[in-house]
């Protein structure tokens, strides 16, 4: 007569399994805390280095600050150029990225949406030096006729006074290249946020007779507002810190001007200026360049922190 034995309820988990589970949880928690602490230490290390090495430039004048009266007279045109190029990039990239994200998430058939999403993501894998070469050898040269047209008809605006250089190396060209570079970041975040909009809300709007655009305007945009803002801010952070592409496209200078289609009065950016001058700098000039890096670090950190804060606030409300 065969006898069967039922497993005891208290034997479902052996002491060995319980011990292994507790050790695994402890190891994972320790690794997570250690990783977070390591990132904070690295960030603090960068900040301390910039403050210690760059603070000596605060009292510098003359040759130490490249002929300027003070460090602030040297930093201000570079800061202006950095912010202007980044703002131009966001004005171009933000609506384009949001539109592409909507096409991927709500309009295009699934095969086309997947292919388009893959192509947009591929833009993020292209090195910045390639963007710079593309910008100076293709975008800049092909935009010269458009710049001539803008100067001919809109020279009464301070943005398009000219003269237009034959090379096309202008602030507007740099902004366009930065817009393409920031496009995949903004698009990726926006399309994920759009896809998370509750289906019930969308279907309810459509059931009430709303068109697809009205449904997006009444349900998707309100739900994704914080995500869209954080995406734009993170894209802005990407544009602020770009170096090689801007260094190749933008003619270096230290002038403050809103003229976007000329090379003579277009200020360089902080990152590009450091890349172009650091190799030949020595002594007090190195401190000056490091101090400009500190200014860029503070601005980029503030922008990215604001973007994360907006995104976190939106998740908490949701």
From TrEMBL:
Give the main localization category.
membrane
- Asked if the Swiss-Prot or TrEMBL record annotates the protein with the keyword Manganese, the reply is no
Gene3D superfamilies attached to this UniProt entry: MetI-like
BP GO terms, sorted: phosphate ion transport
Keywords on record: Cell membrane, Membrane, Phosphate transport, Transmembrane, Transmembrane helix, Transport
The protein's location, in the record's own words, is: Cell membrane
State a GO cellular component annotated for this protein. Answer: plasma membrane
Topology class, membrane = Multi-pass membrane protein
Q: Which InterPro entries match?
A: MetI-like, MetI-like_sf, Phosphate_PstC, Phosphate_Transport_Permease
Specify the ABC transmembrane type-1 domain's residue ranges. 79-307
The answer to whether the entry has keyword Cell inner membrane is no
- Highest taxon listed in the record's lineage: Bacteria
Transmembrane ranges, per UniProt, are 37-58, 78-104, 116-147, 167-190, 227-251, 288-307
GO terms, molecular function: phosphate transmembrane transporter activity
Q: Which family is this sequence assigned to? A: Belongs to the binding-protein-dependent transport system permease family. CysTW subfamily.
Instruction: Relate the protein's function as given in its record.
Output: Part of the binding-protein-dependent transport system for phosphate; probably responsible for the translocation of the substrate across the membrane.
Q: What is the protein named?
A: Phosphate transport system permease protein
Q: Origin organism of this chain?
A: Nocardioides dokdonensis FR1436
């Amino acid at each position: 007569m065969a006898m069967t034995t039922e497993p005891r309820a208290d034997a479902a988990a052996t002491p060995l399994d319980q011990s292994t589970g507790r050790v695994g949880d402890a190891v994972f928690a320790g690794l997570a805390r250690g990783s977070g602490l390591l990132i904070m230490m690295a960030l603090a290390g960068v900040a301390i280095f910039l403050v210690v090495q760059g603070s000596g430039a605060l009292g510098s004048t003359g040759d130490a600050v490249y002929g300027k009266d003070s460090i602030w007279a040297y930093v201000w045109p570079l800061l202006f150029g950095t912010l202007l190029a980044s703002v131009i990039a966001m004005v171009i990239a933000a609506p384009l990225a949001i539109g592409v994200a909507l096409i991927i998430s709500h309009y295009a058939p699934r095969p086309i949406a997947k292919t388009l999403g893959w192509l947009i993501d591929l833009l993020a894998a292209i090195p910045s030096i390639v963007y710079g070469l593309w910008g100076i050898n293709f975008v800049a040269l092909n935009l010269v006729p458009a710049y001539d047209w803008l100067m001919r008809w809109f020279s009464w605006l301070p943005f398009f006074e000219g003269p237009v250089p034959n090379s096309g190396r202008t602030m507007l060209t740099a902004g366009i290249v930065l817009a393409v570079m920031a496009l995949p970041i903004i698009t990726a975040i926006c399309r994920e946020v759009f896809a998370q909009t509750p289906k019930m809300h969308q279907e309810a709007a459509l059931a009430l007779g709303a068109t697809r655009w009205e449904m997006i305007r009444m349900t998707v945009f309100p739900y994704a507002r914080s995500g869209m803002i954080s995406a734009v801010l993170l894209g802005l952070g990407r544009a602020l810190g770009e170096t090689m592409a801007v260094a190749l496209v933008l003619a270096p200078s230290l002038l403050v001007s809103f003229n976007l289609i000329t090379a003579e009065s277009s200020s360089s950016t902080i990152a590009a200026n450091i890349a172009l001058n650091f190799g030949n700098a020595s002594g007090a000039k190195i401190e000056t360049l490091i101090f400009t890096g500190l200014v860029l670090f503070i601005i980029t950190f503030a922008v990215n922190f604001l973007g994360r804060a907006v995104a976190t606030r939106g998740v908490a409300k949701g």
